[in-house]
Amino acid sequence: MKHLVLTLGLLALPKSEKSLHTPPIPLTPYIQTEIQTEKPKPIIKTKPNKSLIDALILVESSGRENAYNKKEDAVGCLQIRPVMVREVNRILKRLGRVKRFTKEDRWDCGQSREMFYIWRNYHHKNSSDEVIARNWNGGPRGYKKQSTEHYWYKVQLQWEN
Questions:
Q1: CA distances from 93 to 58, 97, 123 (A)
Q2: CB atoms < 10 A from the CB of 57, how many?
Q3: Residue pair 23/36 in contact by the 8 Å Cβ criterion
Q4: Of 21, 39, 81, 148, which is most buried with the most CB atoms under 10 A?
């Protein structure tokens, strides 16, 4: 038996004959010698706070800058269509700003975020997050459309997780 145990390498037998009566020491970490009586401490998971725009990005493109919907010509992390670029440029002109966006700017998530904030601050200064999200998805009257209710539900799920 002693040779079988040594061949398998599971136990470390003491070198002196004197200590043969002591229990062998397991070499593998898989053998548990004592049962733990303490409950493990829960791991505290800290999540960075997500904003509405972060949740929208996750719903629209799963966070990918290179997302493209050929059918709608929606591009980038916020899936911005050409009509939104025109609207943002119209807002900038009305505000007397020089800056203008191009359709290529939609591919850059930073530029897309900037367009979103310009649109939101102009049209939705006092609107709820639900109205903002549903209008982002469904247009100027999106908050009234039944088709945007599910979109708002998806945004809320991303926001909570």
A1: 30, 6, 15
A2: 25
A3: no
A4: 148
